[in-house]
Design a protein that fits this description.
Layout lengths: L3 H19 L6 H5 L7 H7 L6 E4 L6 H8 L3 E6 L2 H13 L5 E4 L5 H4 L4 E7 L9 H11 E12 L6 E2 L6 E2 L9 E6 L11 E6 L4 H11 L2 E8 L10 E3 L5 E3 L7 E7 L1
Parallel strand pairs: 1-2, 1-4, 2-3, 4-5
Antiparallel strand pairs: 5-13, 6-7, 8-9, 10-13, 11-12
Length: 265
């Protein structure tokens, strides 16, 4: 099935988001330029010392995490579908005098644009929901990993994507294993803290944990672990409470907000 219309719509929306996100407190670009690290405890603990390792970052937005890994000594390549995001990422890389590379393409087409293999493939937070089918995604990851290489992802839990957050209170209306695309059109973005309002038009797809795990296994990867966490590093859902650790949880803690998968080739 051809999803080019959906991909084009999503790319156009993310192109509009770049300037808004770059000016937001959420991304705090000035602090980042002055040395702040954009990475969180889950990914830092999972990947440890990356110095001297090659790292491919999938769906990198405008590259803050890619550049944070580069600051930690990794040789990084970042991928994103948004040309505006890649343009800003390249500009930041030059300004900060780092050595990361950035490629603008659909994540499913990475192997047509990047022939190198990597010791680490990394992706995080709000990424797989933009993909209609995880099998080509998982196969691409396998193809871009060196033998013995590590794939690591940290992502928002699929239960959290079952809710429509444009209703107050949020209502569970989407299927955990829903195959149909979810189309949303709304004003704003998750970072906005000003009067600037963009209209977001987005197609997304829900993927249960079984689908994610099985796609990776079928591609040839060996799963090291699956972890589920009730704490999120980001306050992006309604009415979350901040913990003493600076993380965010549901008031009733009824379901996890984040999961991690680590695998190897």
């Amino acid at each position: 099935m051809d999803f080019q219309k959906e991909f084009n719509t999503n790319r156009d929306t993310w192109n509009k988001k770049v300037a808004v996100h770059a000016a937001s407190e959420f991304y705090d670009l000035e602090s980042f330029k002055n040395g702040a690290d954009s990475l969180n405890k889950y990914e830092l603990e999972a990947l440890g010392d990356v110095s001297g390792k090659s790292l491919l970052h999938l769906q990198c937005h405008f590259g803050q995490d890619t550049l944070s890994w580069a600051r930690r000594g990794a040789s990084c390549t970042g991928i994103d579908i948004s040309d505006k995001a890649i343009e800003l990422a390249q500009s930041l890389n030059n300004e900060l005098e780092l050595n990361a590379k950035f490629v603008c393409c659909n994540v499913l087409d990475v192997s047509y644009h990047v022939s190198q293999t990597f010791e680490i493939v990394f992706t995080s937070y709000g990424v797989i929901g933009w993909l209609p089918d995880l099998k080509p995604w998982a196969q691409m990851i396998y193809d871009r990993l060196k033998p013995g290489g590590t794939f690591y992802m940290v992502e928002f839990h699929p239960i959290a994507w079952m809710f429509d957050y444009h209703q107050d209170p949020p209502k569970m209306i989407y299927g955990y294993q829903q195959k149909e695309a979810i189309y949303e059109e709304y004003e704003g973005s998750y970072t906005e803290d000003s009067d600037t309002k963009i209209v977001s038009k987005e197609y997304g797809w829900n993927h249960g944990l079984g689908e994610v795990i099985n796609a990776l296994i079928e591609a040839g990867l060996t799963i090291d672990y699956l972890k589920e966490h009730e704490e999120s590093p980001y306050d992006i859902y309604p009415d979350l409470e901040k913990t003493e650790k600076g993380m965010y949880v549901l008031k009733d803690r009824l379901y996890p907000l984040v999961f991690e998968i680590r695998a190897h080739k």
